[in-house]
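call fold(seq) -> tokens
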Amino acid sequence: MQPFRPYPPGTKIGLTTTIPVEAVLAAGLTPVDLNNLFISSPKALSRVSAAETAGFPRTVCAWVKGIYATLQDHPEIEAVIVACQGDCSYTQALGEILEAESRQVIHFKFPYPPDRGQMGQELESLLERLGTTARDAVRVQEQLEPLRRDLRRLDRFTWETGQVRGEENFSYLISSSDFESNPEAYARKVEDFLEQAEKRPHRSSLVRLGLVGIPPIFTDLWAYLEELGAAVVFNEIPRQFSMPYPGLDLAEQYLRYTYPYDIFTRLGDLEEAVKERRLDGLVHYTQSFCFRQMFDQIIRERLGVPVLTIEGDRPTRLDSRTRMRLEAFVDVLRP
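ret:
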């Protein structure tokens, strides 16, 4: 393990998943969501192969391999915050590999089961490690509230009026993990987009879908569903990244965030979305070699709407078999 050293203001800190980003910002550091940096690159597919060439097994999640290879191309990212509990065991192993390569690694644990006392301790440890205080983090949380409120509005425009398309919803909400490394610029971007979206006519679709599971690695899923006449009006995990529950203190905010915890916590959120957003069906995306595939049966049994499960491996366009299954699913759901 590398010894602790303070980070100068503006230092880029990589994130392997959504963590309490307020702590990073309070320390004057720049958060970088490594998943978004990986998948948005034109080199995304080749980076998966590069990680395998470096020794990562074929049977390891492509997101983890992509993060590793992306970091090799970005030496300016001086440290990485690794969720060693609440994400996956692959991420924990990735952190150890990065430490072996002399990369600064900061560990963060989402308490399982959720526990306010333990969350408080984890937050305190993270704040201390980054060289900041709880007071500064709370101040950042308050500064971010107008932006998070705009993201909730953007989400409403998706399912209430149809003025925001499913892919647009996904893109903006998924970026709320790190605010594209610049919260002020990102807030202006969201404001400008909402101003444009508000002028659009209301739009409805015959088939209303929810996309559940981890963010898909496919590059054209939303566009293809729109071709079929279906609208994705609920993106489960990106919405969670946006911290959609206002009025909570910092510890409670990250206890309400469903992704790191048990499937039953997620089911409550999904049941509410199915009812409130009048979903006709769900597309459950599963990543190859991910333990979360095991939750598929519970999701099917508990939510009371048709569910289509699709699986992806590498960052590519939809394969022909998956396209056919999506087409058949949408056809069945049409009134």
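The longest strand covers residues 77-85.
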